[in-house]
Amino acid sequence: MSMDAVLKEVDSRRDDVVKLVQELIRFKTVNPPGDTSDCAGFIKDYLSERGLKVELYESEKGKVSAVGILKGSGDRRFIWDGHIDVVPIAKPDAWTVDPWEGKIVESRIVGRGAADMKGNVGAAMVAASILSEKDINLRGDLVLAFVPDEETGGYLGTGYLVDKGVLDGDACIVGEFSPFNTLCVGEKGILWLKVKASGIPAHASVKFLGVNAIDMLYKFFEDLYHVEEVDRKLTAEFNKIIDAIQPALKQLESIGFPRELLNNMYRRLSVNVGIVKGGEKVNIVPANAEAEVDIRILPGMDYDQVKKEIDQIRKDYNNKLWEKYPNLKALGIEGITVEETLRFDPSYQKLDAPLILLMKKEIQKITNKEPLLFVHTGGTDARFFRAKGIPTVCYGAGSETPHGANEYVPIDNLIEATKVYALAAMDFLGTA
Q1: pTM for the predicted model, two decimal places
Q2: In a designed cystine with 113, which of 101, 118, 278, 341 is the match (CB 3.0 to 4.6 A)?
Q3: Does residue 357 share a domain with residue 225?
């Protein structure tokens, strides 16, 4: 069966793609807790019925991956990887439809996970099914991994399978949304911190008798944000990638993103205080408060150097606290403490990788437009493959609504992604 015949077959199964994505959305794989057992079981049944060999892997209770293999005649292995866990719904009232229905609204599938990333999971499942059912004789194995835990680190999903050798191969597509039909060749790293403040409680009417832990956090963060202003060295290879993604950044600028913001996004780290907790009662000076901080790191930036800078900021701040409130030091109260809770390395794919040329060719064939290159601002499971030396890119349908209300994926884009996934496997592995 020719590539053109495969494309026609995808078009004929448009409704199948839509219905499958809707079914996947209806599995409430919210993370936390991130139980994917039922969804993974459904995927196993679906693919097994269509000729793939599928195994389930449970890294921890409820953290279940489904890995399907379409056997070929050669030694090469081409991997497609995507996650089936989704983030919680923060504001249910902001949704105009049931987030677990997968309703079609104006040629879009709307629902939690539609864009991130059950839409592309469905696209990959249909693409593999067509290759299996139409007896496409691949000269290597097509491996599909549907994993949990991506939204909370990926270590119990893709990370687990890569470490165990289950996901080993010659190239990989991670099916994350790639904005503006781009091909994503890199991503930032992540450093998560938990910052705790310890003060002294007192009655709010005589607050001078206490030390307010919430105030301490607020003032500490004023100092912490200064690490964003430091110019840091990037790797020479990543500087080449920054040059290569300039056309995509110009496109972002054309729709209203300020040039200074775009430059900083790929030249400097970023700091975001995402969670703040503190206090016991409104009329008590709070003795304890804590916050969780997200820092995004670019390739070449030194994690340990950033941690040293933050630790020095902490020490300087605590010294000022002890000078202002001698009773803190007398009571042995440190003031501010900082604990690292998570670290992801940034990663990128070198621009001369044959996989990039192959993907650009297939995307252009389907969309009639050469894709621009892009670097994800968030982290993905691609880093696990790149760390093992497996050439990896991210490509998929979606929208700018992941994690938000009324998350959606355009159906036309889903069909394009299905075609690209099928052709990329045929092109990379070859056919007999």
Answers
A1: 0.92
A2: 118
A3: no
